[in-house]
Amino acid sequence: PLQGPGALFRIRLAGGSSPWTYLSPQDPRPLCHPAIDRALQLSGAGGPPHVKLTVEWDMSTKERLFGNIQEEVVQDAESVRLQQQAHRQQHSCTLDECFQLYTKEEQLAPDDAWRCPHCKVPQQGTVKLSLWTLPDILIIHLKRFRQVAEHRHKLTTLVRFPLRGLDMAPHVAQRGQAGGQLLGRWAPWQPPLRLPPSCPRDYLYDLYAVCNHHGSMQGGHYTAYCCNALDGRWYSYDDSRVEGVREAEVSTRSAYILFYQRRDSVSA
């Protein structure tokens, strides 16, 4: 007679917030778990929300049921193949959409609740990133590598970015106007930090260079597109080879790092 189902195997959530997040196989709805909800929120864009589960068998029970198999080949169902095919289909987004996601307010999972110092009750809070100040030279590093469980994959999503007139104003946090730009305070007893009223408020940027990465995680090659400040034309730099390119060819799926300059800044 077989043992109870709880002794046959354990279900582990791979890539979860905890390295050993186990689900109960005896639960009629084992996926209704806060760890599953958090993993779905962190699955990212580029495909349907998904999680990866690992079934850890008791070796003696496994060998008794399936034989002593050193290497097992499991054929994926047709639905899995279709989902993988849809996930590999290349899609595109804009740089503005990337900033919107970067500064989007997110609600923390229930297992990340913080304890209120006043009422002493755990509260499910929110987290939000904001841009407080912007430099004369803005360097944007696109995330081209994604961690999925124990594996890393290169992302080839086409990010459409403007060559001129990148407006960063919608992504800068709102601050007080009187007496300069309000930067906030580190503690309740400290006065708010402010920038002087003369601080530039022009948030328009123009692209002057792009670093491209070609290849995969195992190996690759770097090239660059740069705009000549003297003639205003774009050029491709590939090792010792330099040639002119059209503006329409600057934005590609290989773009990795973008270099912008504030329009009202003075070149060195």
From TrEMBL:
Q: Which Pfam families match?
A: UCH
* Tagged with keyword Hydrolase: yes
Can you name one GO molecular function term for this protein?
Answer: cysteine-type deubiquitinase activity
Q: Where is the USP domain?
A: 1-263
Which reaction(s) does its UniProt entry say it catalyses? Thiol-dependent hydrolysis of ester, thioester, amide, peptide and isopeptide bonds formed by the C-terminal Gly of ubiquitin (a 76-residue protein attached to proteins as an intracellular targeting signal)
Keyword field = Hydrolase
Q: Which InterPro entries match?
A: Papain-like_cys_pep_sf, Peptidase_C19_UCH, Ub_carboxyl-term_hydrolase, USP, USP_CS
Record-level GO BP terms: protein deubiquitination
Q: Which residues cross the membrane?
A: none
Q: Which Gene3D superfamilies match?
A: Cysteine proteinases
The EC number of this protein is 3.4.19.12
Tell me the SUPFAM superfamilies matching this sequence: Cysteine proteinases
Q: Which PROSITE patterns match?
A: USP_2, USP_3
* This protein's name: ubiquitinyl hydrolase 1
Organism, scientific name: Neodrepanis coruscans (wattled asity)
